[in-house]
Amino acid sequence: MKKLSFVLAAAGLMTLAACGETTPTENAAENVEDVAANAEDVIENISENAAEAIDNVVDNTTNAM
Fold first, then answer.
1. What are the record keywords, sorted (predicted)?
2. What is Dmax (Cα atoms) for the chain?
3. Which tens digits make up the pLDDT trace of 31-65?
4. Which residue of 14, 32, 39, 64 sits 20 to 30 Å from the alpha carbon of 55, by its own alpha carbon?
C-alpha cells in the first residue's frame, strides 16, 4: 500500500510539474509570432511614411506652380 501511495504521489507531482513549463518549441513559435507582428508594424509605418512623402511632394509641386 505504501508503494502504491508513493507511486501515485510521484505521478501527481510529475503531472503538476509538467503543466507550468513551456517547451523550446513553444518559445520559438511565440518568438516567430512576435517577429511577424513587428514586421507587420514596420511595413505599415513605411507605407504611411511613403504616402505622406508623396503627398508632400504633390503639395510642394502644386505650390511651386
1. Coiled coil, Signal
2. 97
3. 999 999 999 999 999 999 999 999 999 999 888 87
4. 39
